[in-house]
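Subject: Sanity check before I submit

Could someone independently write out the structure tokens for this chain? I want to compare against mine line by line before I put it in a report. The sequence has 212 residues.
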Amino acid sequence: MKKLPYPNKAETVLWLGIYAAVLTWSAVNPHDRFTWFLETLPAIICLAVLAFTWKAFPLTRLTYWLILIHCIILMVGGHYTYAEVPLFDWIRDLLGGQRNNYDKVGHFAQGLVPAIIAREVVIRLDVIRSRAWTHFFVVCFVLAFSAFYELIEWWVAVASGDDAVAFLGTQGYVWNTQSDMFLALIGGLVAVTLFAPWHDRQLARFTRKADG
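---
Independent answer below. Compare away.
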């Protein structure tokens, strides 16, 4: 039996089970309900988009599982707020730091995961023939996506005032926006270098499936 290029029924059930369990945990007594809503909304929208595109344009296993990891990062951040995740408080105290850096994990994922998604769409739809130009486009897309997300944070802060302080998660760091975008850039570069061979092997299964 040929291995499907996308998750089978058992994997899909597992994926959805993990997603539902973490989202349920995240929603129970979060640190701040408004912040929880803002932080988890992208994960909820993501699930709706994946459900809508499942039959028409299923993605590779790698992409689906990376998306789940990114959703979990958002849900954990929503539960505690990005400035107060306990594990990263412990790391801060252990290393003698001044801020909780969980938000940097989130922005690294914000570069890595959208880069893999963009890479998959561009390659499978044959938008750009050159692999080098594909990767250049993907990294540019990640930077644009990260910048747009920073604009969204700004707009939410302006609209909601003090209620958005936890959502912004700046923790008094004057270069927070720039460092967030830099971490997203690093995530995008990791996607088109270290993850590319793994991703290519999974993408090749779509070609074999179409040929078969």
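---
OP: Matches mine. For the report I'm noting this point. The CA atoms of residues 5 and 205 lie 5 Å apart.
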